[in-house]
UniProtKB/TrEMBL annotation:
UniProt keyword list: Transferase
Lineage of source species: Bacteria, Bacillati, Actinomycetota, Actinomycetes, Kitasatosporales
Alphabetized Gene3D superfamilies for the sequence: Glycogen Phosphorylase B
Stretches of the chain forming a coiled coil according to its record: none
Spans traversing the lipid bilayer: none
Protein's UniProt name: Glycosyltransferase
Keyword Transferase tagged: yes
GO molecular function terms listed in the Swiss-Prot or TrEMBL record: transferase activity
Any single Pfam family the record assigns to this protein: Glyco_trans_1_4
Keyword Glycoprotein among UniProt keywords: no
Length: 347
């Protein structure tokens, strides 16, 4: 059994990898594993007291198992001579060619969705690949009772980069609510001007928020919304399950990693198939296959349904919340990861 584990990664609250790191660490610790942190980025604001105790106890790298939790990045080279396990993901149909070699040196690669597992194999990863889904914390994202209110507030959560498809979200919202003075759109980005990606809004009904919030979740933004647009090409799609957990009806792109939840949750979501596929080219990484682009007209149709069927939309959100809390419980992830690591780490 694994009793001690070094874990390299980022640790802070307002990012997918970095935020999930805390749940992995705490979950493993509660399962009896002494986790030693090897941070290459650490921000303590918002971390739990339990996590801060583990941060304070961190020391040098040991001789036992090592888990690298991040994308394939230069920091991985620090551990090139150290046997390790990797938890990572990618968001289009093909891995960057430069990722394949480092991943194949891992004892096991853990990914959050079946989509990522298939795509890794198709891209040439021959190391063992295991799916350990991400999830949502019901204490941070409970089902919220929203008051009756005039108009519909639509929420988008994500940085303004091409794969998040914020432009398509804005287009769909404008198509659905062009002449509706009570409609509102909130785009919740982060990382300041960089995360805003140059997005501006001349429509006074649109609010763009780009501050990084070092808090335990962003429930306050989900509480203010009546519907969530989750239209990004994702490795998993945390905002999708966060929105579901809070009881929002969610309109979701059903390709890439979000396709797993769309398939598993079925009609508890308002799914949007891609209208077409776009080539993916990443600077310094090259061509990475294709990704789905959400159908703007279908998204607008779903938005109009939510606006005209408020009671049915709320009922859909409540049912989705129950599903998310049961089927994507974040505390199941460290349990699954420990089983995988103990299976693949030599005894």
């Amino acid at each position: 059994m694994i009793r001690n584990l070094d874990m390299a990664g980022e640790f802070y609250t307002y990012d997918g990898y970095a935020g999930m790191s805390e749940y992995i660490v705490l979950g493993l610790s509660r399962l009896g594993v002494q986790v030693n942190l090897l941070p290459f980025k650490l921000e303590t604001d918002g971390l739990s007291d339990e996590m801060l105790d583990i941060v304070a106890a961190a020391g040098p790298i040991g001789a036992g198992p090592l888990l690298f939790n991040s994308w394939v990045r230069p920091e991985l080279d620090r551990y090139s001579k150290h046997p390790l396990m990797i938890h990572t993901m990618w968001e289009s149909s093909r891995l960057p060619a430069s990722w394949v070699g480092p991943l194949n040196r891992a004892r096991v690669v853990m990914v959050p969705t079946r989509f990522v597992a298939r795509m890794f194999r198709d891209s040439g990863v021959t190391a063992p690949i295991e799916v350990t889904p991400d999830g949502v914390d019901a204490d941070v994202y409970p089902c919220v009772s929203r008051p009756e209110r005039e108009g519909v507030t639509t929420l988008v959560v994500g940085t303004v980069v091409p794969r998040k498809h914020v432009d398509q979200a804005v287009q769909a919202w404008q198509l659905a609510f062009a002449d509706n003075p009570t409609a509102r759109l909130v785009v919740k980005a982060r990382f300041g001007a960089e995360g805003r990606g140059g997005l501006t809004a001349h429509d006074p009904r649109i609010t763009i928020v780009d501050e990084s919030e070092p808090t335990r979740g962003i429930l306050h933004w989900y509480e203010q919304a009546d519907v969530l647009l989750a239209l990004g090409s994702e490795g998993f799609g945390l905002p999708l399950v966060e929105g579901m957990a809070t009881g929002l009806p969610v309109i979701a792109l059903s390709s890439e990693g979000q396709g797993d939840v769309c398939a598993d949750a079925g009609d508890l979501l308002l799914a949007v198939a891609p209208s077409h596929w776009e080539d993916v080219y990443e600077p310094h990484l090259g061509h990475c296959g294709v990704r789905g682009v959400p159908d703007v007209a279908k998204t607008a149709q779903h938005l109009r349904w939510v606006a005209s069927h408020r009671d049915e939309a709320r009922a859909l959100g409540r049912a989705a919340s129950a599903w998310a809390h049961k089927e994507r419980d974040v505390w199941q992830k460290p349990k699954a990861m420990l089983e995988v690591m103990e299976h693949h780490w030599p005894h």
